[in-house]
Every structure is written in C-alpha cells, then in structure tokens.
Amino acid sequence: MIDNMPKVKIGIVAVSRDCFPESLSVNRRKALVEAYTKKYDAADIYECPICIVESEIHMVQALEDIKKAGCNALCVYLGNFGPEISETLLAKHFDGPKMFCAAAEETQGDLIQGRGDAYCGMLNASYNLQLRNVKAYIPEYPVGDAEDCADMIHDFLPIARAVEGLSNLKIISFGPRPTNFLACNAPIKQLYNLGVEIEENSELDLFEAFNKHAGDERIPAIVKEMEEELGAGNKKPEILEKLAQYELTLKDWVEAHRGYRKYVTLTGKCWPAFQTQFGFVPCYVNSRLTAQGIPVSCEVDIYGTLSEFIGTVVSQDTVTLLDINNSVPKDMYKESIEGKFNYTLKDTFMGFHCGNTASSKLSFCEMKNQMIMARSLPVEVTNGTLEGDIVPGDITFYRLQSTADNKLRGYIAHGEVLPVATKSFGSIGVFAIPEMGRFYRHVLIEGGYPHHGAVAFGHYGKALFEVFKYIGVPVEEIGYNQPAGVRYPTENPWG
Fold this sequence. Notes:
Elements: E1 10-15, H1 22-39, E2 45-47, H2 56-68, E3 73-78, H3 84-93, E4 98-103, H4 118-131, E5 143-144, H5 146-166, E6 169-174, H6 189-193, E7 197-201, H7 203-212, H8 219-230, H9 240-257, E8 263-268, H10 273-278, H11 283-291, E9 296-298, H12 302-315, E10 320-326, H13 330-336, E11 348-353, E12 366-369, H14 371-374, E13 383-389, E14 393-402, E15 408-417, E16 427-432, H15 436-445, E17 452-456, H16 461-470, E18 478-480
Parallel strand pairs: 1-2, 1-3, 3-4, 4-5, 6-7, 6-8, 8-9, 13-16, 15-18
Antiparallel strand pairs: 10-11, 10-17, 11-16, 12-13, 14-15, 14-17, 15-16
C-alpha cells in the first residue's frame, strides 16, 4: 500500500467557564480519555494536559501544546458551560478539522456543585462559531457521558481524515474529456474552493514519459506481481510488460509532480487514441493503483477521482468508480431476485465499468481485451481490462460534483451488491438500492449528475454526509434515496 492516506491525531482540549468548578472539566476530560483508550486506539487522540481553557491566554497555550504534540484535528470538549469566546477562538485559530461535544450531567445526587450546564453551553458555542464563520463538526446529539463522547470522537475520525486529505490533495489529469463525454466535464473552480490542487497534462506528456520507461529494470518485478495477482485469470500475458511499464510511469509521475502536496489522485483519458498509441487499455493498471491507495478514474473524470479519494479515506479501503449502467432484465429479476430479496425490479440496476475495479473487490477476475473498444479497433490494442463480477455485500453509492454553473452538490445512497451472476462483461455487479427508481429520477437525473458513481464497500453514508456538509455542500444539495412515502420536491404527487 502506497502512503497516500491521511493519518489523524485528535487533540482533546477541555474548556471551562470561570464561574464553574474547573475540576468538572478536568475530571470529565480524564474520564473521556480513559473511555476512548479502553474502546479504541489510543494513538488516535492526545489529551491536552497543559490547561483547561478558561481565557484567551489559555486558548493560546492549548493551541501551542496540541500543535507541538502533532495534532492535526481538534476536539473542543465542554466539561461544563465553557467560555464561548475562548473556545471558539481556539477552533478559529486551529488549522485543521475540528469538532465540539459536551459533557452530560452524571448523577442526580450531584446536581448542585456537580452540575455543569454543558447542554446550555453547546448552544452558545454553536452561535459563536457561526458569528466567526468557523466550520466545525457537531454530532447529531453532541451531549453525552464519557463513553458517549468517546464514540462521537471516533465517529469524527473518518470525517477529519477526509477534510485533512482534501486540504493536502493534488489531482493529476491527462488529456481533455473524450468527445461525447461532456457529462464528465465540470468546472474546476470548486476544487480550489475545497483547497484541492489540480495539474492538467496532455496525453502527449504521458506518452513521452511512458516511452522513456521502456526497458526499465523494475518492469520484471511488476510483471511478477501481476502474474501472481491474476493467476489463472491472466488471459493476455503478452501485454503484462507494457502494463508494468505504464504502472511505473504513473508512479514515477506522482512522485515527481506531487510538489508540496501530501496526497495524489489520478485521472486519464483512456480512449479513443490511447489504445492505438500505447498499444493497450489502462484499466487493469488503474485498478491496481486504486488498490494500492492512489485512486484513478478513467475518462478524465476529475470529480470522480475526487469522490474516490474521499471514499478511500473514509472507509480506509479500496473503492471503485462505475457507470450507473443498465437495468436488470425482468427474467433475471424473476429468476434470481424476486422472492429472495426484498427489492422491486426498479430498486435494481447494474453498475459497470470496462475493467477498473480492483481484483480484491471481484468474486473472480480475468485480464483480457476490452470488448466495447474491440468493436471498432484491432483486438490486439484493446488488451488490459480486468473483468469479473463484483463481490456481494453492502455498498455506498455516492458522488461529489460541481454543476455546470459551478455549484457543489453530492448524493449518497446505501445499498448492496446482490449475489446474482451478471452474465455480462466488464467489472460489473447487480446492485440494489431501496427506492432506486425514484432516486434515479429525482436525484440523479434531476440533479444533472453524470453516469459515473463512486462505490465504497460498506455503509459509510453517515460519515460521507458529514464530510459533504463540512466542506461546504449545502444540505439541500445532498441527495439521498428517500424512503417510500417521502416525496421529492420534483416528484409528481399523482405518480
């Protein structure tokens, strides 16, 4: 695995209003840290011991301490009511993702000197954050005992990783979007608004770099890796050397061009001239790099690779990018789904792409030629795609997108890949999402989304929703598959 994943260390700073006993915040902070380390990895957090923040001077001291400790995320913990000015200044001046949570009262036997009123303090904290235009994650119910708040901090980890990652991300692209792929062509202004850098290159630049890697001494080792990964699925062994040469070209480009950025994703133009000039298709290499921690989207889908990166960071697992592709035939539905799974035909569809899904996310795989491209090109230049049915299990289908008029929006839907043979080609699976038909019409079509969607393997909607909110997607612009009986604004009430 390439080191392309943000690591987060959350500094926990307890605050106290000076007319409340400081001991409330001290003891509650200690209990919170103890609860976290009992249940989760102690390396995730750092307990700021230097002070309980009651004043602006304490705020500066705490800020310096957590920076010195290497913290790149912050949890402001209201052990009692808290000092609304100092605590929000702490968040304002901390350069990184931050959250707020508050202590619940502990026992009915101590509601005089032991009452902290942090329930009230969270209201003033949130108001002050808005006054200062400071973004912070606030859990759905941000008040709890030590165990509850430990869980909240743990829920914050994937959100913090994504926010930290985006602020240090560079997207490297090769070529313009292919003809007739205007759907993947979105304004890049929102990338800069998110703090993401982009380096746009020509396919000719990439081709030159590829040719310079001919005969690279590292090629045999990569070929051996590929042979071991593919096993009996290695149907085009004659193309492995070129694929290895291409993989090394991309890896070297990443290292030479990442600049001051910590993390990198890639996207490239994979047709129509790619095959005839390079002599292969890049799908299998794309899948390998994605599995190694460098997400790659095809067809120069910039917001596709951005979405993949977010999902990789949130899930800490390999993701994929698929076309929301074709409907499930009625006879397949009746034979393999109806009566076996609680989905209607309209809840199902097939997610497909030529062959960019990692082998670890396929039930079986074969590396062979790309059938669609081979319809109009010589077969020998279309080798290099990875085909197989996607592994059954829970998934999250999602995407972050800039609209044509430069508005940031996204969608998230939980579903699953069904254990149903696709009887088709490419990297493909039979997907089911509750109320998919309505979601397809009133979110995907109505929202002007392209056909590419990112897929995370597991249910990560809760974290992705908070990431989208944190980075500035308006809540009304985050689409999801609404349950039956909850009407979309554009949905015809008479059906």
